[in-house]
Structure formats: C-alpha cells, structure tokens
Design a protein that fits this description.
Blueprint (H helix, E strand, L loop, with lengths): L4 E8 L9 E14 L2 E12 L4 E2 L4 H6 L9 E4 L5 E4 L10 E4 L5 H10 L4 E5 L6 H12 L4 E7 L2 E6 L8 H25 L2 H30 L1 H7 L6 H28 L6 H27 L2 H8 L2 H18 L4 H23 L7
Parallel strand pairs: 7-8
Antiparallel strand pairs: 1-2, 1-6, 2-3, 3-4, 5-6, 8-10, 9-10
C-alpha cells in the first residue's frame, strides 16, 4: 500500500544568491516518498519570498497520486529527530485492511501471521463449508490474539476483526505488562519447586498464554508504528527503536517459557520434596537470574548503562552456583539429578537472555 506521507529532511547547506522577489536560500531538502512500497528520493532547493517566507515544491508525481490540487490542505508535523512529515490524508478515515484466506490444516498459523502483519479484517472463506476441525482451529487462534474477535460466521465463512485502536497501546506499556507476568512466573515457579506446590506450578503454566498474547500484540503494534510515522510520534517511540523492543519482547517471552519448564518439572514431582541443601543451592542460582532480568529491564526503561553493565558482573557467581549443584548431585547419587540440572540450566538461559536485553540499552541523549 502506498504511503500517505512525505518526509522532508534538511541534509546540507547550499550557498545561493538573492534576486528581487524569490531567492534560493542556504539549504537543500531531501524529499522521501514511496510508490507501491518502493521508497524514492528527490532533492529540492529551499526558496524564499521577498517577504521572508520559506517554501519548497512538492514532488509532482506524489502530489498527483494523493489527489492534491491548488488550495488543498495538508498536515505538517515535526518528528523528534527534526524531520517534517507531510500527510496528504490526515483527515481521511483509516480504511480497514482486509485479507481473505482459505481454511487449511494451518489456518490458525495463517491467522496469527495476518494479525501480526496488521490486517484489521481476516476473512476465512471455503468453497463449500468450513469443517468442524477448521472452525475449532480458527476460534483457538482468535482466543490467542488480543482484540481479534469473530464478528460474522456461517457455514462457509468466518470473519474476524481486530477491534483495537493502535494509538491506545504504547509499546512500553505492553512490554512492561509482558515482563510483569513473565517475572512473576519465574518467581512463582521456584516457589512451587521449593514448597512442592503443584497447583501453583499449574498456575504458572497457565499464565504463559497471556505472555504470548501480549507478545503478539506488541509485534502487531510495532509493525504498525513502522508503517505510520504519525503514530510513531503519538506513541512516543521512534521507528528505529522498534527493533529493540521486538528483541526485548522476544527475550521476555523466552524467560516465561523457561519458567514454564521449571513449573512442568514441579508437576511431574507429584509432591516429592527437594532436599533442603539442594533447595538452597537452587535458590542461589534463581536469585542471580531473577535479579539479572530485573536490572536489565530497569536499565531498558531508564536507559541506564551502568545498571545494564552490572548484569554482566554476575556471570561468575552463577557459574559457581551451577557447579555447586553439580557437585552435590554427584556426591548424593540423586535420582532426579537430570531434571534438577535441567532446572539449573533454565536459570543459565534466563541469565543469558537478561544479558542480551542489557546489551540493547542505549545511553540517554544529552
């Protein structure tokens, strides 16, 4: 879909001379616009009237594509990095993007993919009728995606629509919520392990679905932000930061997955308690890994590189704790040794994810 905006960037000065009414001023503008998804760049000289007004001509092809005429009204906004964005359709209601797919054994994956790509309406249409199995997969996919609801259904068609307004969901808020759930899963999974609480472990496993839902929502919002410069300004996030948010969200989701593995081990124990000395050793590595991702996310939101660097300093302490667990298991010939080592390995991986998050922290600009 062709972009509805034009970006103007002041890139270098050009010395010129004045005439009686209009003069070439000391600047050259770069005009960036797109046609069918392909970005084009043109250069335009800034001019000035005798009265002191600055102006620059818009690319003719772009203006014609947007239906601009003499006296047409456009919106001009300045981004945080000093660029001007000209929106020729600022007052035109957003037309929902629609896609049609066919029911297949992978229809649920297709629905998730279209949701992440930002489609507002997803129509599932069959030649004859949609089977019971396909209907169940479609409904399960809808339940996994925040805001996606079935608004129409008959024997050969199911229509899903995303009812969310992107501007109401700042990426930072979604990421904070995703991390809040993932970190509580990590904490409660270890509480369940130490206290042999299978019910709490099952609750941890159930919460993983909410983390996944928030992750999918964040990816959808980030992709929408990249395609909409005006939305980027409204949500207070630069397009260049979207990749970092996507990576951080992936690591946070992975922390939740590792916590689920610990919880599943607790469920398999069926009430069997972990030896007290071993429990203390496991708690040691748990606390190091937990503190690491707490510091990493704090550094992300505060842009504090000192806190981010502190995450790396715990690697040796974590390695020592893991070695102590191995030594204990060898000396005791513990029956559940492979599973306990798997739990300790999950803590290692959570710590590695925390370091990866901390590595993405950029210092505050002066």
């Amino acid at each position: 879909m062709a972009s509805t905006t034009l970006q103007l960037s002041l890139i270098f000065k050009y010395l010129g001379s004045e005439n009686s009414s209009i003069c070439t001023k000391t600047a050259l503008f770069r005009c960036i616009h797109s046609l069918n998804g392909v970005v084009y760049m043109e250069f335009r000289r800034v001019q000035r009237t005798g009265g002191g007004t600055f102006f620059v001509c818009l690319p003719k092809k772009w203006a014609l594509r947007k239906g601009l005429e003499r006296s047409s009204l456009v919106a001009i906004s300045e981004t945080t990095n000093g660029r001007l964005v000209i929106d020729a359709k600022y007052n035109v209601e957003h037309a929902p993007q629609m896609v049609v797919i066919k029911p297949t054994p992978f229809v649920d994956r297709e629905i998730v993919g279209k949701y992440l790509l930002g489609y507002d309406i997803i129509r599932v249409e069959a030649k004859d009728r949609i089977s019971t199995g396909d209907r169940e997969r479609i409904k399960q996919a809808s339940s996994r995606l925040i805001g996606l609801e079935i608004i129409e259904e008959d024997y050969a068609k199911i229509v899903l629509q995303c009812l969310l307004e992107p501007s109401a969901f700042p990426p930072s808020k979604i990421l904070r919520r995703e991390y809040s759930i993932a970190s509580s899963m990590h904490r409660d999974a270890f509480t369940a392990l130490i206290e042999s609480d299978a019910q709490l472990a099952k609750n941890v496993i159930a919460r993983d679905n909410e983390v996944n839902r928030l992750y999918f929502l964040l990816v959808r919002i980030l992709r929408t932000v990249i395609q909409n410069p005006s939305l980027s300004e409204k949500l207070g996030i630069l397009p260049i930061d979207c990749l970092d948010y996507r990576l951080i969200a992936t690591f946070v989701e992975a922390i939740g997955d590792q916590s689920v593995q610990v919880a599943e081990f607790v469920v398999r124990l069926e009430g069997v308690s972990v030896a007290k000395e071993l429990a203390q050793l496991l708690l040691k590595v748990h606390r190091i890994a937990f503190d690491a991702h707490e510091k990493a996310l704090k550094a992300v939101f505060s842009r504090d590189v000192v806190v981010a660097e502190a995450v790396r300093n715990e690697r040796q302490a974590l390695a020592d704790g893991y070695n102590q667990i191995e030594t204990f298991l060898r000396s005791q010939a513990y029956e559940l040794a492979p599973h306990v080592l798997a739990v300790a390995s999950s803590m290692n991986r959570i710590y590695d994810y925390s370091v990866d998050i901390a590595d993405l922290v950029m210092p505050k600009l002066p």
